[in-house]
C-alpha cells in the first residue's frame, strides 16, 4: 500500500509530465495555465520532492515549472493552453 507521500509525489510527477509533454508539442510555458485543486496546490507547496527551482512566488502569483498556477475552482487538476 502506497503512503500519502508516495501518492502526493505521483500526482506532482504527473503535473511535471503534463507540462513537459505540452512543451514537446510546442507550447510556451507563458501560454499555459495550471489549474490545481486546493489539495494539489497545498501539496505542491510543501512536498520536499519539489525543488526550489521548480516553484516560484512573485507579485502574488505562483508558478510551477514556469507555468502560472490558479488554485481552486476545479475538482481535478488540469493544464490548459496545451496544443492539441
Description:
With 84 residues, this protein is of the alpha+beta class. It has one domain (4-80). It has helices at residues 4-24, 38-46; strands at 33-36, 55-58, 61-64, 67-71, 78-80. Strands 2-3-4-1-5 form a 5-stranded mixed beta sheet. The mean pLDDT is 90.
List the helices and strands and how they pair.
Elements: H1 4-24, E1 33-36, H2 38-46, E2 55-58, E3 61-64, E4 67-71, E5 78-80
Parallel strand pairs: 1-4
Antiparallel strand pairs: 1-5, 2-3, 3-4
Fill in the keyword field for this structure.
single chain, 84 residues, alpha+beta, five-stranded mixed beta sheet, 5 strands, 36% helix, 24% strand
Tell me the domain tally: 1
Structural Rg: 12 Å
Distance between the termini: 36 Å
Spatial strand order of the main sheet: 2-3-4-1-5
Total strands: the figure is 5
Shape: globular
Describe the sheet with the most strands. Answer: 5 strands, mixed
User: Structural class of the helix and strand makeup?
Assistant: alpha+beta
Short recap of the structure:
The chain is built from 2 helices and 5 strands. It is an alpha+beta fold and 84 residues long.
